[in-house]
Amino acid sequence: MIVPLTLRVNGKAVTAEVAPETLLVNFLRDHLRLTGTHVGCDTAQCGACTVHVNGCAVKACNVLALQMEGQEVTTIEGITPAEGLHPMQAAFKACHGLQCGFCTPGMVMSAIDLVQHHPHRTEREIRDGLEGNICRCTGYQNIVKAVAEGARAMGK
Protein backbone atom coordinates (compact mmCIF):
# COMPACT_ATOMS: atom_id res chain seq x y z
CA MET A 1 0.00 0.00 0.00
CA ILE A 2 1.25 3.46 -0.92
CA VAL A 3 0.04 6.61 0.84
CA PRO A 4 0.29 10.24 -0.31
CA LEU A 5 2.44 12.59 1.76
CA THR A 6 2.63 16.38 1.64
CA LEU A 7 5.09 18.37 3.72
CA ARG A 8 7.72 21.09 3.47
CA VAL A 9 11.39 20.14 3.41
CA ASN A 10 14.00 22.87 3.63
CA GLY A 11 11.37 25.46 2.78
CA LYS A 12 10.06 23.70 -0.32
CA ALA A 13 6.73 21.95 -0.76
CA VAL A 14 7.13 18.21 -1.26
CA THR A 15 4.49 15.75 -2.37
CA ALA A 16 5.28 12.06 -2.56
CA GLU A 17 3.82 8.62 -2.21
CA VAL A 18 5.37 6.39 0.45
CA ALA A 19 4.83 3.06 2.10
CA PRO A 20 3.34 3.46 5.59
CA GLU A 21 6.43 1.93 7.23
CA THR A 22 8.88 4.38 5.60
CA LEU A 23 11.02 6.11 8.20
CA LEU A 24 11.65 9.83 7.84
CA VAL A 25 15.41 9.25 7.55
CA ASN A 26 14.88 6.87 4.62
CA PHE A 27 12.41 9.22 2.96
CA LEU A 28 14.91 12.09 3.17
CA ARG A 29 17.86 10.03 1.95
CA ASP A 30 16.25 7.69 -0.58
CA HIS A 31 13.34 9.70 -1.97
CA LEU A 32 14.69 13.25 -1.73
CA ARG A 33 18.44 12.43 -1.97
CA LEU A 34 19.21 14.60 1.08
CA THR A 35 22.07 12.45 2.26
CA GLY A 36 23.41 14.81 4.92
CA THR A 37 21.01 13.13 7.33
CA HIS A 38 22.95 10.01 8.29
CA VAL A 39 21.75 6.58 9.31
CA GLY A 40 23.77 5.49 12.31
CA CYS A 41 22.07 3.16 14.73
CA ASP A 42 18.42 2.93 13.58
CA THR A 43 17.40 3.02 17.27
CA ALA A 44 17.48 6.77 18.09
CA GLN A 45 20.61 6.32 20.20
CA CYS A 46 23.36 8.03 18.18
CA GLY A 47 21.73 11.21 16.85
CA ALA A 48 23.36 11.06 13.41
CA CYS A 49 19.92 11.38 11.82
CA THR A 50 18.83 14.52 13.71
CA VAL A 51 16.72 16.99 11.74
CA HIS A 52 14.39 19.81 12.78
CA VAL A 53 10.63 19.36 12.64
CA ASN A 54 8.81 22.65 13.07
CA GLY A 55 12.00 24.07 14.60
CA CYS A 56 12.68 21.29 17.11
CA ALA A 57 15.33 18.56 16.93
CA VAL A 58 13.96 15.11 16.08
CA LYS A 59 15.76 11.86 15.37
CA ALA A 60 14.58 10.95 11.88
CA CYS A 61 15.15 7.21 12.37
CA ASN A 62 12.52 7.21 15.09
CA VAL A 63 9.54 8.69 13.22
CA LEU A 64 7.58 7.64 10.19
CA ALA A 65 7.58 9.85 7.13
CA LEU A 66 3.78 9.88 7.22
CA GLN A 67 3.89 11.47 10.68
CA MET A 68 5.35 14.51 8.94
CA GLU A 69 2.18 15.21 6.98
CA GLY A 70 1.81 19.00 6.83
CA GLN A 71 4.96 19.60 8.88
CA GLU A 72 8.13 21.61 8.17
CA VAL A 73 11.29 19.49 8.10
CA THR A 74 14.73 21.08 7.96
CA THR A 75 17.83 19.01 7.24
CA ILE A 76 21.50 19.98 7.43
CA GLU A 77 21.23 20.99 3.75
CA GLY A 78 18.45 23.41 4.68
CA ILE A 79 20.38 25.40 7.29
CA THR A 80 23.28 26.30 5.03
CA PRO A 81 22.94 29.73 3.43
CA ALA A 82 23.50 30.11 -0.32
CA GLU A 83 27.01 31.36 0.38
CA GLY A 84 29.11 30.33 3.34
CA LEU A 85 28.12 28.31 6.37
CA HIS A 86 25.54 28.55 9.14
CA PRO A 87 27.23 30.08 12.23
CA MET A 88 27.11 26.72 14.00
CA GLN A 89 28.73 24.96 11.03
CA ALA A 90 31.41 27.64 10.91
CA ALA A 91 32.05 27.19 14.65
CA PHE A 92 32.43 23.42 14.24
CA LYS A 93 34.98 24.06 11.51
CA ALA A 94 36.87 26.78 13.40
CA CYS A 95 36.94 24.86 16.70
CA HIS A 96 37.83 21.53 15.08
CA GLY A 97 34.60 20.03 16.43
CA LEU A 98 34.73 17.17 13.95
CA GLN A 99 37.04 14.43 12.82
CA CYS A 100 35.51 11.77 10.58
CA GLY A 101 32.40 13.92 10.12
CA PHE A 102 29.82 11.15 10.37
CA CYS A 103 28.12 12.56 13.47
CA THR A 104 28.61 16.20 12.48
CA PRO A 105 25.32 16.92 10.65
CA GLY A 106 23.24 15.51 13.49
CA MET A 107 25.46 17.15 16.09
CA VAL A 108 25.11 20.54 14.36
CA MET A 109 21.33 20.18 14.12
CA SER A 110 21.10 19.24 17.81
CA ALA A 111 23.41 22.11 18.76
CA ILE A 112 21.29 24.64 16.88
CA ASP A 113 18.16 23.36 18.62
CA LEU A 114 19.93 23.46 21.97
CA VAL A 115 21.06 27.07 21.71
CA GLN A 116 17.81 28.30 20.15
CA HIS A 117 15.66 26.82 22.90
CA HIS A 118 18.11 27.15 25.79
CA PRO A 119 20.47 30.09 25.20
CA HIS A 120 23.44 30.97 27.42
CA ARG A 121 24.31 27.39 28.31
CA THR A 122 27.22 26.47 30.55
CA GLU A 123 29.73 23.83 29.46
CA ARG A 124 27.96 21.24 31.65
CA GLU A 125 24.57 22.17 30.16
CA ILE A 126 25.95 21.90 26.62
CA ARG A 127 27.32 18.44 27.41
CA ASP A 128 24.00 17.40 28.93
CA GLY A 129 22.07 18.89 25.98
CA LEU A 130 24.09 16.89 23.46
CA GLU A 131 23.74 13.66 25.42
CA GLY A 132 21.65 12.03 22.69
CA ASN A 133 24.39 12.46 20.08
CA ILE A 134 27.33 10.10 19.94
CA CYS A 135 30.73 10.97 18.51
CA ARG A 136 33.17 8.10 18.35
CA CYS A 137 36.17 10.24 17.34
CA THR A 138 36.53 13.57 19.09
CA GLY A 139 36.15 13.12 22.83
CA TYR A 140 33.63 16.01 22.74
CA GLN A 141 36.02 18.74 24.02
CA ASN A 142 36.07 20.62 20.73
CA ILE A 143 32.40 19.93 20.06
CA VAL A 144 31.48 21.67 23.33
CA LYS A 145 33.74 24.60 22.38
CA ALA A 146 32.13 24.71 18.94
CA VAL A 147 28.60 24.80 20.38
CA ALA A 148 29.52 27.66 22.74
CA GLU A 149 31.19 29.56 19.88
CA GLY A 150 28.29 28.84 17.53
CA ALA A 151 25.84 30.11 20.15
CA ARG A 152 27.80 33.37 20.43
CA ALA A 153 27.85 33.72 16.65
CA MET A 154 24.08 33.13 16.57
CA GLY A 155 23.57 35.84 19.19
CA LYS A 156 22.52 33.34 21.84
Number of helices: 6
Classification by helices and strands:
alpha+beta
User: How would you write the strand order of the largest sheet?
Assistant: 2-1-5-3-4
The low-pLDDT segments are: none
How would you summarize the topology of this molecule?
Blueprint (H helix, E strand, L loop, with lengths): L2 E7 L2 E7 L5 H8 L18 E4 L2 E4 L12 E3 L1 H4 L7 H8 L9 H14 L5 H7 L11 H13 L3
Parallel strand pairs: 1-5
Antiparallel strand pairs: 1-2, 3-4, 3-5
Helix pairs in contact: 3-6, 4-6
Please give a structural write-up.
This protein is α+β, with helices and mostly antiparallel strands. It has 6 helices and 5 strands, in the order ββαβββααααα. It has a 5-stranded mixed sheet with strand order 2-1-5-3-4, with helices on both faces. α3 runs antiparallel to α6.
Salient structural properties:
single chain; 156 residues; alpha+beta; 5-stranded mixed sheet; 6 helices; 5 strands; globular
Short structural summary:
The chain is of the alpha+beta class and 156 residues long. The chain has six helices and five strands, in the order ββαβββααααα.
